Amino acid sequence: MLGFSAGVMLAIVFLIYINEFWTSGQRQASPLHEISYRACFKPQLPGFFIQLMTKAGDIVYDPFMGRGTTPVEAALLDRRVIGNDINPLSRILTEPRLNLPDFRQVQERLFSIPVDCAARAEIDLSMFYHPQQRRR
Ligand SMILES: C[S@@+](CC[C@H](N)C(=O)[O-])C[C@H]1O[C@@H](n2cnc3c(N)ncnc32)[C@H](O)[C@@H]1O
């Protein structure tokens, strides 16, 4: 026996956003983002969607935060943030940029690091240092 079924046509509307996120035409972002990490994206990308889809005080969650681009950008935009990553380095890179130490705390931390002035690197790194630094 042959049967017929009525087909229902669904109209699906896609929103398309066009912007520059990866080119030299993009705006300069906060220097807080200047940390190198594998496959990180430009802060303008999460920034665009955070501003589009949330308001100040909302929570932004990134389950794969990497260097923390999304949480840091969200915090800069006055959102509350939750981040996660399987790589423990991710928290080390992100947390201090969400709770910036003041000058005194940075100074205390630097002076707490033991320095062995007699120690020498196994390779010549002098080209990376200012001549006055090299003499110390
Ligand atoms: C491409 S990176 C994300 C980069 C991030 N968008 C940024 O701008 O820094 C992907 C991240 O996902 C993390 N990851 C991979 N598998 C995961 C898992 N199962 N659970 C949590 N994090 C995971 C990796 O450690 C890595 O940091």
Protein described:
With 136 residues, the chain is mainly α. The protein has a domain at 31-110: Vaccinia Virus protein VP39 (Rossmann fold, 3-Layer(aba) Sandwich). The protein is 32% helix and 6% strand. It has five helices and two strands. The chain has helices at 44-53, 69-76, 88-98, 103-112, 131-135; strands spanning 59-62, 80-83. Helix 2 (69-76) links the parallel strand 1 and strand 2 (80-83). The chain binds S-adenosylmethionine. S-adenosylmethionine binds next to loops.
Supply the CATH architecture of the domain at 31-110.
3-Layer(aba) Sandwich
Helical content (DSSP H or I, runs of 4+): 25-40%
Q: How many β-strand runs?
A: 2
| CATH class label of the domain at 31-110 | Alpha Beta
Taking the sheet with the most strands, its summary is: 2 strands, parallel
**CATH fold assignment of the domain at 31-110:** Rossmann fold
The CATH homologous superfamily of the domain at 31-110 is termed Vaccinia Virus protein VP39
First-residue to last-residue Cα separation = 95 Å
Count of DSSP H/I helices: 5
Rg value = 24 Å
Note the beta-strand portion.
5-15%
Uncertain regions spanning at least 5 consecutive residues: none
What is the N-to-C order of secondary-structure elements (H for helix, E for strand)? HEHEHHH
